[in-house]
Every structure is written in C-alpha cells, then in structure tokens.
Design a protein that fits this description.
six-stranded antiparallel beta sheet, 6 strands
Amino acid sequence: MTTGNDGFDARLNEVLEQQAVRVGETVPAYVRRAVVTRLVKELAEADDTDLGHLLKRLESTADPVPDTPASTPPAASDMPAIVTDPDRVRAVEATGLLDTPSEPAYDRIVAMAADALSVPGSAITLIDKDRQFIKSALGFGPEEERPREIPLEAGMCRHTVALGEPLLVEDARLDEKFMNHPGVLDHTFVSYLGIPLVDDSGHAVGTLCVWDAEPRQWTTGHVQVLKDIAWMVRERIFE
C-alpha cells in the first residue's frame, strides 16, 4: 500500500514513492530534498535578501558538478603532508575565520544542510595544521557548550580535506579505516558526508559536513544537495 501525502492524488503518490525508491530515499526525505532545492532556487531569485544576492552570484559563477560516487580516503600516512602543507595552511589563515565567533549567516547554512539531509549534525569547519576549528555547528548540544575546536584526530573532516573531494562514510563501524576513530567509538560519527571547501587556488581549507549516529545510505542526490549548499559557504568565505 502506498503511503501518500495529503493533497496528492493516488497516482501522484504512487509516482512519488517509485521515484524515492529509485534514488534510495524515503518519501519524506525525497520530499524534503525537493522542497529545499526549490527553496534555494527561489531564494536565488530574491534580489532583496542577502542570501538572494549570494545565490545570484553562485548561480552565475558555479560550473555544473557531476554526480560523485563514494570515495575512499587516502592512507593515514599520506594525510599529514596534505593537511600540513604550508600553502594550504596559509590559505586557511587567509580566510580570516580562524578563532572568530559564530555568525548567523553561517548558522543558517548549517541548519539548512541538516534539514535538507534529515540529519542531527552538521558543521562548517576549518582544518588548521594541528586542529579542527568549528565555525558553525548543529548537533553538539547547546551553543554555550559547543567546542570551538577539537584535535585533528578527533574529527572526520581532515580526511575530507586530504581527499579533496566528497567523502561518504555509510557505516564507519564496518570500515577498517574508521572503526577505531574516536568519533566512531563514542557513537558520534556512525555515518558521515563531507564536502571540501576549496579556494580558487585549489586548496581545501575546510568542509561542510553532516553526520548521524545511525548508518546512512548516501545517494548521489544527497551529495548533490550538500555540494549546492557548500557552494553557498564557499562564495561567502571567498567573496
């Protein structure tokens, strides 16, 4: 039996359910993603808002992004050279965001990412040479208790920066690369999806990421939505 949405006729509900199954999502998750996609489009057309101006610039400068399959991070021995590369570290410092307080604009984007992918946790991070600075986050408890930075080894985002492309982890408990990670052992990051924030010179300075304490099957739709939202972060950082 098809479980439908109020206001949809039987045939529309049937098609909706079939499409959600095809992309590997539940119907509510599929509808939520469709709503967020339309919201982003309409906000881009709203010239009288800061977000509208930002999205207008994004729409005119961003190249189409192809679907991205699940990626395998580089070996741990390869990561320090990438993460501590002096040029990349200077690019992080050049953002001017390290050790700055949270800002409503970034907080709204983080909340949008969590809502769009139906996850409890989302963050914008900067990966310094020896720490992960958290510019904005949702899912760490009250803001006054939220850590502003954590050691590199305590987060997942260094792997995304080292990889330089989206990192998908569906069940870290079953992945030899991540099963002994501190965030996995304490059941924070059972699933993780991270998009690197790359400057014009190709340096990944940080991430927009989401996570869940439960396994998640990330689809190409999830990746594309988070990429679209990450462009909003990138345009704000590097404008």
